[in-house]
């Protein structure tokens, strides 16, 4: 007996497998790019509208189907405007060769030096109760927030960070954003979280740190000006009262990346 898919299997080539794997790889990278951004919610909304459009057509709901089709046309035209930050970020990462790049960007020696500098300056600022907000970019690009600050693009060091966070200076109240081992900008503006369940002890710095962690996969270090306590935020959560060793472990966990092969390409990363 002839089965419909027998002809498909007989015409299937090794190049078709490669084609499917490449498409899957690109889709995975795009998923990593938009994960934890507003694009995810927008895509879900489009999927819901698509399902409703199909259902209305099956049920012969002509008026609703016509309205949805017209609306989908308008939405597709507006998508480049709605997704402008995400599209720009994708093009920037392609231009920097980061969209298809995996594994550790900087050497382990340089990463160790970076962590040593951050731990040292955090402990120093904690002792003097000097407020600080340090953001580490991971997979999700932070160029939109970098553009709100003063460009620096300098190598991370205790001395540079100490000067940036000197009280009553122009850059003191903003955030420092670090990409790989370089300070990209200081005095950056971050969105505040809308979570009303947070403790009243948390000030603007902590709320900004939580806010940016809700929208991106960045990890953020906060030094409290009032108590000197060191905290970090990730995924919309804040973890407080860290010592030097705990901070070092946090940075190693979030900043150390392992190469990804085809075997674990679809593995969810924290």
From TrEMBL:
The chain crosses the membrane at residues 12-32, 39-58. It is an enzyme of class 2 (transferase). It catalyses: 2 ATP = 3',3'-c-di-AMP + 2 diphosphate. It comes from the Bacteria. Its EC number is 2.7.7.85. It holds the Pfam family CdaA_N. InterPro entries: C-di-AMP_synthase (IPR014046), CdaA (IPR034701), CdaA_N (IPR045585), DisA (IPR050338), DNA_integrity_DisA_N_sf (IPR036888), DNA_integrity_scan_DisA_N (IPR003390). Residues 84-244 form the DAC domain. One of its GO terms (molecular function) is diadenylate cyclase activity. Keywords: ATP-binding, Cell membrane, Membrane, Nucleotide-binding, Nucleotidyltransferase, Transferase, Transmembrane, Transmembrane helix. Probably a homodimer. Catalyzes the condensation of 2 ATP molecules into cyclic di-AMP (c-di-AMP), a second messenger used to regulate differing processes in different bacteria. HAMAP family: DacA. Belongs to the adenylate cyclase family. DacA/CdaA subfamily. This is Diadenylate cyclase.
